[in-house]
Amino acid sequence: MTERELRVSLEDRDQWVTAVPGRRASVAFPVIDFPTWGLCTAVTRRAGINGHNGDRMSHAGDVVLFGGSVEPGESGPDAALRELCEESNTLGHLFDPEYRVGDHLGSWVTESGFIVDGFLVHLPPTFYDVSRPEPREVERIGYLRLDHLFATEPALAYHRVDRRDTRLGTEAECYFESPTIDLVEASTGQPWTLWGAAGYMASRARERILRDAS
Asked: Which of 12, 68, 72, 167 is such that its CA lies 20 to 30 A from the CA of 189?
């Protein structure tokens, strides 16, 4: 490690990452049973520019779960489902009984100080047909088969986090260790990497679903 490079292990994360009071977010880990691919989850590739204000999007270009800030008076599960519907242009299905929130997966504190709660969200196969990326926030929606997730043991790996997405106030290149899972996107065959909050929630979902199936 050089003076221009900061590497933070998962074990030491609490020394560098602290939650900001009132800064809460929710993410959705969808579970969809497709007739062709079997059980899948849906994830997003973050847009580079925030289409709402023209600024750089936080975590631009990263593979992340559907999610965002919890609004005042909103519960964590409700925020996870609303964000999923907003980012997939399916707000008309927000109160559809086939779009339902399941178990809480855990909490992760981001480098920017958000406490992120993850939730399983059960969706019908028709989600694939009606969903479209919200271009102001999402570049692409990808589908990852859960049998591949079940067969892949999460690993710990370091990933570069843009210092603008941290609260560290450093000029160093920042690398944070997190649970990491490499999977193949079902419709294109291209590799997608889940890490950070997405990697953590995917590893927790893997544990939960495998446990419930045993």
From this structure: 68
Cα separation, 153 vs 126, whole angstroms:
29
CATH (domain of 86):
3.90.79.10
- Is residue 214 one of the residues assigned to a domain? no
The count of structural domains within the chain is 1
pLDDT tens-digit map of 146-179: 999 999 999 999 999 998 899 998 889 999 999 9
Q: How far apart are the C-alpha atoms of 196 and 111, rounded to whole Å?
A: 9
Separation in Å, CA 74 to CA 42, 69, 82: 23, 10, 10
pLDDT digits (tens, 9 = 90+) for 130-149: 999 999 999 999 999 999 99
- Rounded distance between C-alpha atoms, residue 32 and residue 125, angstroms: 6
This prediction has a pTM of: 0.94
In a domain, 180, yes or no: yes
The whole-number pLDDT of residue 182 equals 96
Beta strands in the chain (DSSP E): 5-8, 24-34, 38-46, 63-64, 66-69, 100-109, 115-123, 138-145, 155-161, 173-184, 191-194
- Identify whether 64 is part of a domain: yes
106 domain residue, yes or no = yes
Parts of the chain with a pLDDT under 50: 1
Helix, strand or coil for residue 151? helix
Say how far apart CA 99 and CA 122 lie, in whole Å. 6
pLDDT for 3 equals: 64
